[in-house]
């Protein structure tokens, strides 16, 4: 699952399995759960932010609530008049709603949200996954164009300037700037246009079986599980 908690839904097969199909000119990486993960975990970060505002909650309970809240927002986007369309305001509102959901709309929610929005925009909140650096170096070593494409917002740019292996990647595409979230086919069409590649020339490496792998296949891309 490519959520901000970095929990991979599929088992990691390792960078040595990153075979590049014939005709591929560019490798596009999902970010969270594929190349980087939050540190500390999302649940711990939420717990610490809540504690700063006088709310004591267990990590396990927060993790369960977070997953439910995240799925609820995914469902809202899927059922929207224009499914999976997004922008800067929608992404901020999505995370505000998730935080409010996790803490049951308590009066402190807005302050907790502000803390967490700032926290997850800092490079210090992220660390490489165990396979991330090797995956990116493998793609760069093959002489391919390499890009990041994520259901993130513009905060991704600051993170990508400081956190390995993101710093090695020259092209960064955030959903809030593209105007679409995965799994929308428009997300993939936007990336194709910006990289100047056709679907069969692109390989998506991601960890989410639906948002990355199934959606990439529907778009006509090659896909690999991270």
Topology record:
Elements: E1 26-29, E2 36-38, H1 42-52, H2 59-79, H3 88-102, H4 109-120, E3 126-128, H5 132-141, E4 145-150, H6 155-160, E5 171-174, H7 175-178, H8 185-195, E6 202-206, H9 209-218, E7 222-225
Parallel strand pairs: 1-4, 1-6, 4-5, 6-7
Antiparallel strand pairs: 2-3
Provide key terms for this protein.
two-stranded antiparallel ribbon; disordered N terminus; alpha/beta; five-stranded parallel β-sheet; DNA polymerase, domain 1; 226 residues
Describe this structure as you would to a colleague.
Strands 5-4-1-6-7 form a 5-stranded parallel beta sheet. The chain has a two-stranded antiparallel sheet with strand order 2-3. The chain is globular, with a radius of gyration of 17 Å. Helix 9 links the parallel strand 6 and strand 7 (222-225). With 226 residues, the protein is an alpha/beta fold. The chain contains 9 helices and 7 strands, in the order E-E-H-H-H-H-E-H-E-H-E-H-H-E-H-E. It has 2 domains: 15-38 and 126-225, 3-Layer(aba) Sandwich (Rossmann fold); 42-123, Orthogonal Bundle (DNA polymerase, domain 1).
């Amino acid at each position: 699952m490519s959520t901000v908690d970095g929990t991979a839904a599929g088992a990691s097969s390792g960078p040595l399995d990153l075979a590049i199909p014939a005709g591929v000119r560019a490798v596009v990486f999902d970010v969270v759960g594929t190349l980087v993960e939050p540190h500390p975990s999302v649940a711990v970060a939420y717990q610490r932010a809540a504690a700063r505002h006088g709310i004591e909650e267990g990590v396990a309970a927060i993790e369960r609530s977070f997953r439910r809240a995240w799925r609820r927002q995914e469902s809202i986007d899927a059922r929207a008049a224009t499914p999976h369309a997004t922008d800067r305001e929608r992404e901020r509102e999505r995370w505000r709603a998730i935080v409010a959901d996790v803490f049951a709309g308590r009066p402190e929610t807005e302050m907790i949200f502000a803390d967490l929005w700032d926290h997850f925009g800092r490079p210090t909140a992220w660390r490489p996954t165990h396979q991330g650096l090797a995956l990116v170096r493998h793609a760069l070593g093959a002489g391919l164009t390499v890009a990041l494409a994520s259901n993130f917002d513009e905060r991704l740019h600051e993170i990508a300037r400081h956190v390995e292996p993101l710093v090695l990647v020259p092209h960064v595409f955030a959903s809030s700037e593209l105007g679409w979230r995965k799994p929308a086919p428009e997300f993939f069409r936007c990336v194709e246009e910006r990289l100047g590649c056709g679907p069969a020339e692109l390989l998506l490496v991601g960890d989410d079986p639906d948002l990355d792998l199934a959606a990439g296949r529907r778009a006509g891309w090659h896909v690999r599980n991270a």
